[in-house]
Design a protein that fits this description.
The complex is a heterodimer. By secondary structure, chain A is mainly alpha-helical. Chain A contains 13 helices and two strands. Chain B folds into two domains: 163 residues, Rossmann fold, CATH 3.40.50; 77 residues, no CATH class. Helix content of chain B is 38%, strand content 24%. In chain B, strand 7, helix 7 and strand 8 form a beta-alpha-beta unit. Chain B is globular, with a radius of gyration of 19 Å. The chains are: A mainly alpha, B alpha/beta.
Chain lengths: 289, 260
């Protein structure tokens, strides 16, 4: 039960990351930072200031989006490796911020006594309720991503990914769109972080460090960058896998690396295309008979 | 029907120079493109034709000189602003969106007419659906006219070269430009394919567009153009109707070559 809830949380943030990486083609190596920002804004407002979680959720979305806007404005002018380095730096800065502001965040030992999510008098306090709540919001995020892919803005993002020059000459404000999607993926991260902190009733800075930014990236890449099903598949696999590898601690990191390398070398479009290809494969087989 | 020389220029290039380091890729070039004309820019490789296109579409900025589009000075406008004003181009090396379907490529051409934004797209708002509906309708119609309707749902990257060239033109036409710039749209095509493109260009002019082309295919240039500008080493060496250009000794020397 526990693990499927985390899978939902991961699917949500990876879907947001995929909008940025897969659709618009912009790399973020600091996404765990935005995730943490979402978690800490909600966590601190509810645990330390007694805000109702619903308000905290909106504050978290607004706050994280605002930080994404401020960070994105200078960094999204950079390309490729430079953008990767800049976002990496931002992620690390956010992480340090969580550790250092211990009067607010509880510092390295973490933020405790975060209440469960509640809407009015309805409390999302059992694992089952959390389950529905998390997957409900994740489903909303997925529907949004799916709608976006087939919209005017979604197509413009895909165009930017292939040829920024051609997109510009077609009348697309490329920088503005990149910034927009960066902020949106920050908002996805904020919701995911909020779900995380209210589910665990606790959070610590280590969850939002550089390694987890890489893990999120790995989830998207393994599943399939730019593919709607990619982050779903990748997040599921890389959430469940470590559970089964508990016995061999330390091996999992090695395995992540191997999986990522193998996927990039042999299946650069990730695992999702294999599954979406099954229907036509079956059709071909039956057609041949 | 040839254009009357009196009509107002739609594009006016005045003493435009583009320097890359010490080299002038375009040097002190001036000419006007009258409304409704089909005009060609020709010249040997490296004459500055593509640089000129980049200056007009805003991908490069001019070192000096002025450019007017529809009587507005446009030197400082960004490429997307110029696209919204009514400039559209194709590329010598095709820049289609390879990871999208043929239809989606053309839909990008309709982008500037849409009104729906990010949030509308997320929840598939009525406006977003209306955008999609109107754009699809227009684009399917356009693909029909241009002869790519059978390929509408194919991935653009998988198409044959001639079809890719055609798709670039279709995408530019979808923006309903006032001025259409075609950068070597017939390069590498068969005679039949370039005939088809000539037909499309003539139809575009009939629909009220003005066309400026950079082209090496002389059959196309001489057949289509009302006027021709000849560049050599970044400088304009001649301008005039095809008959005049074909017999201009300077043009023959640097570009067209002596007749045997």
């Amino acid at each position: 039960m526990n693990i499927t809830a985390f899978a939902g949380i991961h699917v949500l943030i990876c879907t947001g990351l995929n909008l940025l990486m897969g659709y618009a083609g912009q790399l973020s190596l600091g996404h765990a930072g935005f995730w943490g920002l979402g978690a800490y804004v909600s966590g601190v407002l509810t645990a330390k200031f007694g805000w109702p979680p619903v308000f905290a959720l909106f504050a978290s979305i607004l706050g994280t989006s605002l930080v994404a806007l401020i960070v994105g404005f200078p960094t999204l002018r950079l390309r490729g490796h430079y953008l990767a380095m800049a976002t990496l730096g931002v992620g690390i800065i956010i992480h340090i911020f969580f550790v250092q502001t211990d009067s607010l965040t509880g510092g390295p030992s973490g933020l405790v006594n975060v209440p469960s999510f509640s809407i009015g008098s309805f409390r999302v306090d059992t694992p089952l309720k959390n389950h529905y709540f998390i997957w409900g919001l994740t489903a909303l995020g997925l529907i949004g991503a799916m709608n976006l892919a087939n919209s005017r803005v979604g197509r413009a993002l895909k165009a930017i990914n292939t040829s920024e020059v051609a997109a510009e000459t077609m009348g697309i404000k490329t920088f503005q769109y990149k910034l927009m999607i960066f902020v949106l993926s920050g908002a996805y991260a904020a919701v995911s972080g909020t779900l995380y902190v209210h589910y665990l009733n606790f959070t610590a800075p280590e969850t939002f460090g550089f390694m987890n930014s890489v893990l999120l990236l790995t989830m998207v890449a393994v599943g399939g960058i730019g593919n709607f099903w990619g982050p779903i598949l990748g997040a599921m696999i890389l959430t469940f896998l470590p559970e089964y590898l508990r016995a061999y601690e330390g091996v999992e990191v090695l395995l992540y690396g191997l999986i990522l390398a193998a996927v990039m070398m042999f299946m650069p479009r990730g695992l999702a295309p294999i599954f979406s290809g099954i229907p036509s494969y079956v059709r071909n087989l039956t057609g041949m008979k | 029907m040839k254009n009357s020389p009196k009509s107002e220029p739609i594009l006016s290039i005045k003493k435009v120079t583009k320097r890359f380091g010490g080299l002038s890729a375009v040097h002190d070039v001036s000419f006007d493109v009258p409304r409704g004309a089909i005009m060609a820019v020709i010249g040997p490789n490296g004459a500055g034709k593509t640089t000129l296109f980049n200056l007009v579409t805003g991908l490069d900025s001019a070192s000096s000189g002025e450019m007017f589009f529809l009587n507005r000075k446009m030197n400082d406008f960004s490429p997307h602003e110029r696209a919204v004003m009514g400039l559209s181009r194709t590329f010598q090396i095709p820049q289609i969106f390879v990871n999208m379907s043929v239809l989606e490529n053309v839909l990008i051409g309709r982008h500037k007419f849409g009104r729906s934004g990010l949030l509308g797209g997320l929840w598939s708002s009525p406006r977003s659906r209306k955008d999609n509906r109107e754009m699809r309708e227009y684009c399917l119609n356009l693909l029909e006219r241009i002869g790519l309707i059978d390929k509408a749902n194919e991935e653009a990257g998988n198409m044959a070269y001639g079809e890719i060239k055609l798709l670039e033109i279709a995408r530019a036409l979808a923006t309903e430009p006032t001025l259409l710039l075609l950068d070597e749209c017939a390069a590498g095509l068969t005679a039949k394919e370039s005939d088809h493109i000539m037909k499309i260009v003539r139809a575009a002019r009939k629909d009220g567009m003005t066309v400026l082309l950079v082209e090496h295919d002389m059959r196309m240039v001489m057949n289509l153009s009302d006027d021709i500008v000849v560049l050599n080493f970044g400088e304009k060496i001649a301008e005039g109707p095809p008959e005049k250009i074909q017999n201009d000794p300077k043009v023959i020397e640097v570009y067209l070559g002596e007749e045997d």
